[in-house]
Amino acid sequence: MLALPAIPLLALACVPLVGWGLRRAPVMAPWLAALPAALFLLVLTTPDGAMFSLPWIPTLGVELAFRLDGLSRLFALLIAGIGAGVFLYAAAYLEGHPLLHRFLAVLTLFMAAMLGAVLADDLLLLFAFWELTSLASFMLIGFDAHRAEARRAAQQGLMVTVAGGLAMLAGLLLLGDAAGTFRISAILAQGSTLAAHPAAPWIVVLIAIGCFAKSAQWPLHFWLPNAMVAPSPVSAYLHSATMVKLGVYLLARLNPAFEALALWQGLLIGVGTATMLAGAVLALRERDLKRKLAWSTVVALGTLVALIGIEDPLAATAAVVFLLVHALYKASLFLIAGIVDKKAGTRDAMQLRGLGRRMPITAAAALLAGLSMAGAPGFIGAFAKDLLFTVQLGVPRLLPAVALLVNAAMVVVAGVVAARPFMGKPMETGGVAKDPAVALLVAPIVLATLGLVFGMAPHLISAAIIEPAAGAILGRPTGIALGEKQGGTVVMTMSFAALGLGLLMFLGWRRLQPTLAGQTWLDTYGPDAGYGRAMRAVSAVAVALTRRVQGGSLRGYLAANLALVFAGAALVLVARGGLALPLPGPWAGPAQLALAAVILAGALAACRLRALFGQVMAAALVGFGVGILFLTLGAADLAFTQFTVEILAIVLLVAILARLPFHAPDARRAPERRRDALLAAGVGAAGTAILLAVLSVPFDPFITEWMGKAAVPEAKGRNVVNVIIVDFRALDTLGEIAVLLIAALAATVLLRRTGKPG
Fold first, then answer.
1. C-alpha closest to that of 326 among 271, 379, 389, 290
2. Residue 55, helix vs strand vs coil
3. pTM metric for this prediction
4. How far apart are CA 604 and CA 671, in angstroms?
5. CB neighbourhood size of 752 (10 A)
6. Residue 611 CB: number of other CB atoms within 10 A?
7. What is the pLDDT of residues 556-580, one digit of tens each?
8. Residues with Cβ < 8 Å from 534, sequence gap 6 or more?
9. Predicted confidence band at 248 (pLDDT cuts at 50, 70, 90)?
10. Which residue from 38, 17, 37, 39 is spatially nearest to 28, judged by alpha carbons?
11. Exposure check for the chain: N or C terminus, fewer CB within 10 A?
12. What gap in Å lies between CA 610 and CA 664, rounded to an integer?
């Protein structure tokens, strides 16, 4: 079905158009929201089970394959639907910014990469889009590149997610090898048989590392709150519907294949629980609204990972409902935090108060989103909380207690972010504290209202969205309808206990927060500090290594490279028994023998002459002699290439050497000359041995004959040599041209620099 690949590829194709068009007509920026809105409708109308496949790299079995099922539909709807609101918000939030066109172009790239990742039905295609999300997020987080904290946060996010992605790539390759295919649908069709494969533990651990890095799981969770230096539209999109949920998506996608593996369950439940607890504590000690919301996202991501690890139909349903709930309220609250920051001039929760009288519409939207986050009755967040408690009560040991504390902490976060800034006596603000323009309010109001609508009428999404997505995670239908009461009295008691404990903590948060913030050991010994120490250690090692190997001697660098390359090649040749002599062939003619004598004389002269320009001319004699030798052997194209390279090399060498301040013709001592002579003899001997070994292999005329036959029908050319250069080895020729161009540019710059004083 062509509509399926059109969803990500259309967004991808629009990236340059957005950058080019908005640069010339920035007034059109709000209309860009129509793109994700159109993609939302396209996803909504594409039938479930739609598939598309086109060979991409056939020799490796990689396909341009896409598939739409319940899980990918849910993620695609969130990406496109929330994206429409974020695009509209961003156009108003950054109105008048000189780089608005660039921001929205990268945001479009981000959306396209996410859509491609969740719709991909090939592991390597998914990985390509996965890494594209990391690149796009790097540019978005570092959008305000003039700020040091933005540059550090962007670099940190890229380092953590890409490093995890490399580990995940190894896991995906192992998975494809074990399954015999890279098609995700074919892998899932094998059921749980992959769990018994000998490589299954390695696959699980490597893929989990990549997913944990992307979805900010402990101890790799620190990069996400630091990314809050990005503009608020980025924060809202990043946390609600895009990049940080991608790791959760892949874990959920592969769950049917590995759910029977104890390592899979233990790893996901253990790391998810640790992430929940760490995020809750760090959220309570935070004062910045955006960072506080970011830590609560860490909690949510840990909850989702733990739910995926629980082999229970109810856990799959809980994960899907909570995913949807979190996306709605978190996007709304981040957008509201951006409005508060813009209008009040601060995001410090200790300073914000009394904005409700001046910003009643913003306060109403915040209240709706906050109630959904807290799990208040009547909101879809209440269904999510009941499902979570029901599932977590079924897991032994600490998870129920952790769940109670974490949910109470989330009530505090909801109160501090959604209620505290709007309560009490009005504060003195640095900005104009009033409700913003409609474009800034549409998205948070709609998203917050949906939390109430779905809570009052869960049937609107139960059969169409929730059940298909949960069934995809579980690998079979769950048979659970949203809205059915789960858990009974115990769950109700836990739910009210979490609300009550959260309200008490909220009332005492002003005293609790300084106490938690005073625990400086959390900063001193935390993962973020560890990352800083690791980067400083890498820098120190790099400096020490550079001082050791970069002595400033061009002769030393050249000697090390030659010794490494030719000694390594000779060692492999000897170890593999490759030393051989070619069969005797026809003797050289008098002209060729004379040319060989000229070449030998030039080589000896280059070694013996003391004058630098004399050495250059002697070396040129060798090059031109080789070119003429090619002519006598019928290789005219090779000969003319040799002449061209020699002429260019001589001109550049003479031009450069004429400007260099040489104080002595040769400053080497006698031992250094002997060492260089020994190295030259060794390199020559190794090169000769390799060439003789190559010539000893019988000539296979297959490629030659094929090119001769295919020149006219395949490339429409009768000059076979020209066809080979331009068609059959076109990329090689392009590479050679690129090398020459780069060398010419470098030489031009060097020549210009040498002509400047100082």
1. 379
2. strand
3. 0.79
4. 20
5. 9
6. 11
7. 888 888 988 988 999 998 888 888 8
8. none
9. very high
10. 17
11. C
12. 10
